[in-house]
């Protein structure tokens, strides 16, 4: 509501006679302009801070970008990323299937809810990263450990969101389904799950984000491989541009992955949002 | 949940999980799960060591400092973003990115810049907590009802007055949600920070326990941490519920 | 009797007009034309209603007078001074009450004074007297969610009176209140007007309500709104509420307005 007033105010400024100032205002009110300005400002700030330099371990943006290109060209960064992404994707797939199933089951059956919800509430609040040393102690430093870490980090939020999504499915829709004699199976698959899809997907995105945290943590703590190795190795030899570049790339990749998940959701599961 | 007509308390199922854990532990299914009773037995040992209390106090100190910074900076930034389109467009891409980014990867940067001490832990806490606080304060400021804003304007409120007397209060439910989520993320941050900076606080204990394969001690420590996190979460949920009628009275 | 006057849109400012609206137009972005060159005078000490079909821009006009939204063209003058924004000479009663849920009745009623920096004890004394006047004595320390809709709007009214503005703008104040409460409210409002001697501008879409509470009614046409008629309501104000509602002048006025408005319905 209040937003509308803002929008009215800005578009009114645009409707004024076309002077230079109002043109500037119109240009500035375009959504992409300020985003672009903002990214440019941060990168420029980075460059300046690196040139001062604020710290001997703070490289300039241009050096970092150059180092990143170097790592992309010599193949070390793509290889590292691929190694990092394998446990992440395996773990996330397991969590997505198992977690949504558990969450939906808890949402549908009060007994399962009673049994499961308290456990996952405790787990969601808990700093599960602390389990990492334990998992390493139990399973060594292989792929199993990394997949487990990703699962531990991603599971609770996926389960709890799926549970909440099913529990909060609109009652009027469920009653509608029952009034038109839908059976339980039809109700679940044709009414409840579609109604719950947005929140389930929100949980999957949060789960993917936590999975990334877990995957990177695993690589920084377990004998380094993948991007974690690039980060820790370059930190240890004070090759800061490479270290910063690898970190920026990991963050960028996580943003791209979460965005991709959102695209998949819109493309295949949210017909009402298509074409918007 | 009811069994044979009697209501069973919601959290009672945790006892079943505990029993299951004990059983799995006794059957030696996995070295990951020692029996729960032996872990609880280690708690006394843990509480008797001075290093545990030192680590706890350091953790508490950096946690409180970090979350205080995150709240004091995050709430105003979020409210301003919710009210000003320009600030919103400038900052939102970054806030969105960092809310879901693997912040673990940034901790090495903080370590490189600020060394292996308490400052790094505090900054890690801020880094983990602040984004969701900003995002929720922003959502709260955007949901403030137009008529309250107009009311303040009609009675001649200055910008500062509408900020402190209307927006901050009307956005309170979302702000509290953001603070609760921020506090939970901060717990994760303080632990991840100490895992990576393995020479201070619990990080040191983790290091000692895992290099000596003291699985039971490690679990005892984890139980304490999980319990503390749960208490923080519940306390914040309680505060949030108390503020809920604000939201209910909005249209 | 009701005296349906011809369109007095361009009548020059007469003595006693405290609010003057001069050819005000409002076009919302996206091209929705809410008001089209409205000119209107509001005489001091009277209650003038803006009456019209829903969505006709009555509220827009009231908010322009309040200074809450800018007019696209034209101007509003209060006692000859041009309106550029909200001012201490006007106060506003909101359709949805606009009470702060986190503040007590007392603080809500005193809020206008609080914003002006009136010391606490002073503003609370003033607010208390107005809370008593609107019939909420004893509820000072309740919170809005503990009150009924009608009582909440009484708080809104107390808040508007407490700032001692000369013009009180009321935006469909009783529309979110149930029918019985509304009737009682209308009766109390008449008493209040008699006591306060202020200028009231009252937006409503209820013909009966407009005729019952107003001295004058400005009929607005469908969007883009113009003033289609000014009606002087000539109903005895000293009679009992029941007598007024049964008075021939009241019934005739209601009927003639309805006859005039019917043509705007599809």
Protein described:
The complex is a heterotrimer of chains A (276), B (251) and C (266). With 276 residues, chain A is mainly alpha-helical. Chain A has 12 helices and no strands. Chain A has helices spanning 2-15, 20-28, 31-51, 61-73, 76-108, 110-125, 131-139, 143-167, 171-179, 184-221, 226-236, 240-269. By secondary structure, chain B is mostly helical. Chain B is 80% helix and 2% strand. Chain B has 12 helices and 2 strands. Chain B has helices at residues 13-26, 36-48, 50-83, 85-100, 107-114, 118-142, 146-154, 159-170, 172-196, 201-211, 215-242, 244-248; strands spanning 2-3, 6-7. In chain B, strands 1-2 form a two-stranded antiparallel ribbon. The two termini of chain B are 33 Å apart. Chain C contains 9 helices and 11 strands. A 7-stranded mixed β-sheet of chain C has the order 1-11-10-4-9-8-7, with helices on both faces. A 4-stranded antiparallel β-sheet of chain C has the order 3-2-5-6, with helices on one face. In chain C, helix 6 (179-196) links the parallel strand 8 (167-171) and strand 9 (199-204). Chains in contact: A-B, A-C, B-C. Chains A and B meet through helix 1, helix 3, helix 6, helix 7 and helix 10 of A and helix 1, helix 4, helix 5, helix 9 and helix 10 of B.
Which features characterize this protein?
heterotrimer; A: 276 residues; mainly alpha; 12 helices; 0% strand; flat; disordered N terminus; B: 251 residues; two-stranded antiparallel ribbon; 2 strands; globular
């Amino acid at each position: 509501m209040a937003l509308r007033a803002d929008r009215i105010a800005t578009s009114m400024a645009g409707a004024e006679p076309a002077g230079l100032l109002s043109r500037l205002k119109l240009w500035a009110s375009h959504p992409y302009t300020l985003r672009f300005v903002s990214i440019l400002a941060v990168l420029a700030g980075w460059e300046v801070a690196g040139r001062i330099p604020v710290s001997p371990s703070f490289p300039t943006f241009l050096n970092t970008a150059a180092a990143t290109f170097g790592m992309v060209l010599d193949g070390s960064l793509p290889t590292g990323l691929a190694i990092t992404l394998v446990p992440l994707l395996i773990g996330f797939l397991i969590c997505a299937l198992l977690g949504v199933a558990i969450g939906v089951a808890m949402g549908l059956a009060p007994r399962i809810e009673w049994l499961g919800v308290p456990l996952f509430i405790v787990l969601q609040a808990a700093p599960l990263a602390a389990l990492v040393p334990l998992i390493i102690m139990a399973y060594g430093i292989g792929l199993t450990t990394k997949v487990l870490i990703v699962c531990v980090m991603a599971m609770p939020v996926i389960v709890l969101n799926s549970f909440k999504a099913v529990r909060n499915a609109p009652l009027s829709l469920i009653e509608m389904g029952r009034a038109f004699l839908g059976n339980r199976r039809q109700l679940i698959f044709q009414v409840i799950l579609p109604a719950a899809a947005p929140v389930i997907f929100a949980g999957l995105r949060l789960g993917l984000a936590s999975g990334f945290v877990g995957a990177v943590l695993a690589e920084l703590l377990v004998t380094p491989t993948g991007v974690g190795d690039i980060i820790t190795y370059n930190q240890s030899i004070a090759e800061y541009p490479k270290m910063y570049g690898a970190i920026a790339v990991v963050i960028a990749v996580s943003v791209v992955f979460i965005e991709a998940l959102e695209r998949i959701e819109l493309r295949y599961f949210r017909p009402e949002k298509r074409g918007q | 949940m009811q069994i044979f007509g009697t209501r069973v308390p919601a959290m009672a199922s945790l006892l079943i999980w505990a029993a299951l854990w004990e059983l799995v532990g006794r059957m030696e299914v996995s070295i990951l799960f020692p029996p729960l009773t032996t872990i609880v037995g280690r708690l006394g040992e843990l509480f008797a060591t001075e290093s545990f209390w030192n680590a706890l106090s350091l953790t508490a100190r950096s946690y409180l400092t970090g979350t205080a910074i995150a709240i004091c900076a995050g709430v105003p930034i979020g409210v301003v973003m919710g009210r000003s389109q320009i600030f919103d467009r400038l900052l939102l891409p970054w806030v969105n990115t960092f809310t879901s980014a693997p912040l673990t990867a940034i901790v090495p940067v903080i370590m490189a810049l600020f060394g292996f001490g308490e400052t790094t832990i505090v900054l890690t806490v801020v880094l983990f907590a602040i984004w969701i606080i900003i995002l929720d304060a922003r959502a709260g400021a955007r949901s403030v009802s137009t008529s309250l804003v107009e009311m303040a304007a009609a009675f001649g409120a200055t910008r500062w007055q509408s900020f402190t007397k209307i927006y901050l209060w009307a956005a309170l439910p979302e702000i509290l949600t953001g603070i609760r989520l921020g506090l939970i993320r901060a717990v994760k941050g303080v632990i991840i920070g100490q895992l990576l900076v393995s020479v201070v606080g619990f990080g040191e204990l983790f290091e000692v326990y895992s290099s000596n394969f003291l699985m039971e001690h490690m679990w005892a420590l984890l139980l304490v941490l999980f319990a503390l996190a749960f208490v923080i979460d519940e306390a914040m949920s309680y505060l949030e519920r108390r503020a809920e009628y604000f939201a209910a009275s909005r249209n | 009797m009701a005296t349906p006057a011809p369109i007095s849109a361009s009548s020059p400012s007469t003595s006693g007009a405290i609010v003057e609206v001069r050819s005000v137009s409002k076009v919302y972005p996206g091209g929705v034309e809410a008001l089209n060159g409205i000119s209107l005078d509001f005489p001091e000490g009277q209650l003038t209603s803006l009456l019209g079909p829903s969505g006709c821009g009555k509220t827009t006009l009231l908010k322009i007078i309040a200074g809450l939204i800018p007019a696209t063209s034209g101007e509003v003058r209060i006692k000859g001074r041009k309106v550029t924004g909200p001012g201490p000479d006007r106060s506003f009663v909101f359709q949805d009450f606009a009470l702060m849920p986190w503040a007590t009745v007392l603080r809500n009623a005193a809020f206008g004074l609080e914003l002006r920096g009136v010391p606490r004890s002073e503003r609370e004394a003033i607010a208390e007297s107005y809370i008593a006047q609107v019939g909420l004595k004893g509820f000072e320390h309740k919170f809005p969610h503990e009150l009924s809709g009608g009582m909440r709007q009484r708080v809104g009214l107390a808040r508007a009176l407490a700032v001692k503005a000369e013009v009180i703008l009321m935006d469909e104040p009783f529309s979110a209140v149930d029918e019985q409460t509304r009737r009682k409210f209308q009766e109390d409002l008449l008493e209040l007007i008699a006591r306060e001697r202020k200028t009231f501008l009252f937006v409503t879409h209820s013909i009966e309500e407009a005729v019952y509470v107003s001295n004058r009614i400005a009929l607005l046409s469908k969007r883009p709104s113009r003033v289609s008629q000014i009606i002087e309501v000539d109903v005895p104000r000293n009679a009992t509420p029941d007598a007024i509602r049964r008075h021939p002048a009241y019934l005739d006025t209601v009927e003639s307005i309805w006859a005039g408005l019917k043509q705007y319905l599809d």
